[in-house]
Design brief:
heterodimer; A: 115 residues; mainly beta; 7-stranded mixed β-sheet; 4-stranded antiparallel β-sheet; 48% strand; globular; B: 110 residues; 0% helix
Chain lengths: 115, 110
Amino acid sequence: NAGVMQNPRHLVRRRGQEARLRCSPMKGHSHVYWYRQLPEEGLKFMVYLQKENIIDESGMPKERFSAEFPKEGPSILRIQQVVRGDSAAYFCASSLTTGFSYEQYFGPGTRLTVT
Amino acid sequence: DAKTTQPTSMDCAEGRAANLPCNHSTISGNEYVYWYRQIHSQGPQYIIHGLKNNETNEMASLIITEDRKSSTLILPHATLRDTAVYYCIVSRTGANNLFFGTGTRLTVIP
């Protein structure tokens, strides 16, 4: 059973460009979470999605950031007009359910560098 | 979600048990204790979780005090590959996200 997959693993963008980060959850998982980790800090929650629905985006910056999880295909985290402060590791996680105690399985992350 | 307090760093000799403490004095009745770890540059890895009973799996044991205000993660025979940042997280049933604090940086020494 393949784990959570993220691509690309490394992404370099110039200021003002767009960044698209992809996440394929574990097979059978329909809950996806995105986290951001700045250097030397813990992970910070950004958004929680189920298929075709954003459930909780309380951690998402109000501008330039968006996320989707379409019926078919991977979840996408999109950052428009990137700035240097967006440089971070972005981790995606998936879970089977949230109804009871559960564990989240994390992908290897995408390291975004904005030059 | 309740806040947790962990030591910033710990060392452990290879082959010995690593005992990582966590205080969560404001934990609520419906909140679970989760432990994750993050090996350098990798995604966090789930280790174990519990509500009030002690738990054990192939990776570790989790000891939760009777009043649930603190817990200890035990790695019974630490190896060099256990060197990582360990996060103690308290989260209620059905919470949408996990709050990762700064964790404990465990260094296993040969």
